[in-house]
Amino acid sequence: MINVEKITRTYGDFTAVEDVSFEISPGEIVGLLGHNGAGKTTIMKMMTGYLEPTGGAITIDGLDIAADRQRIQQKIGYLPENCPVYPEMTVVGYLDYAAALHGVPEDERPARIADAIARTELQEKAIQPIAKLSRGYRQRTGVAQAILHKPAILILDEPTNGLDPTQIQHMRALITELAGHSTIIISTHILQEVQAVCNRAIIIKDGKKVLDSKLDSLQANNRLLVSTSAESDKAVAFFGGLDGISAAARVDGNPQKNGMSTCELRLDENNNHNQTAAAVASAVHEQGWQLYALHFKTRNLETVFAEIGA
User: Residues 6 or more apart from 35 whose CB is under 8 A from it?
Assistant: First the structure.
């Protein structure tokens, strides 16, 4: 559905985004992840047609954004950074105005507005001026605007910004629900946000894509930590020669501490990892070594960030 091909955006001598490419299929919830200033918002602005790429191309449903910008924008619901709204309007008045801009037929607007208000839990604030709302309620108003026209693509820049913990949980549930009929792209610098709602992460660092992976692949249990009484170098050499082990390395700074050494084993992708772990335990026993610990290494986005230096 979405194809981003080698997009670049420069401002004079400064390159904000450089040679970024990815594809997003219908129904995916993709987290665009990176530190503040990494280039996430710039990429989103180019995807929504609010900013032209200096180089590269973006196509959505076969339409080129340079030639078919308005047709593409009709398919998109967009929550921009910092949630720009009209503070002098009431919530319901603003949503009615937004519905008209989105091209929602007049006779359908009341039902669409009521549905958006209910989904974002804005019922108690519907007739209040936006200027009097807290930051969290303004953020919800921005999300309500983005979903009014039931877009096929929903692009949310920091959707939980300003929300309290309860509101964050509700927003996560809403995003998961919306994924039933929309492709969703979320920009955030919060790792837990991506882990909670996304099934794929694209990490941007200094304007470049440094990782693009399904979360279940990132978190796959393909590494095993083994602590034994063996001398480290001997253990590394031994484990590296076992079936089902593609690599072995020492993980502690000291070759052997308190009579114990720990090795990290990378497991072959095509083997049953549980069976390989059992075989490692048996091999340690056959060597006459003490087995102090054996467990799969936990890997999450924080681990990945540390590995790639993002």
Answer: 189, 205, 310
Same domain, 18 and 123: yes
Tell me what pLDDT residue 309 has.
65
Q: Smallest Cα–Cα separation from 243: which of 287, 278, 219?
A: 278
Distance CA(142)–CA(123), nearest Å, equals: 14
Could you list the residue range(s) of the whole structural domain that residue 155 is in?
Answer: 2-218
Q: In the listed set 184, 218, 252, which residue is the last one of a domain according to the structure?
A: 218
| Residue at token pair 């108003």 | 141
In this structure, how many other beta carbons lie within 10 angstroms of the beta carbon of residue 37? 12
Quick one: how far is CA 192 from the chain centroid? 9
Exposure on the CB side of residue 12, measured as CA atoms within 13 A: 0
Could you tell me the two tokens for 190?
């919060």
Instruction: Note the pTM of the prediction, 2 decimals.
Output: 0.80
Residue type, 64: D
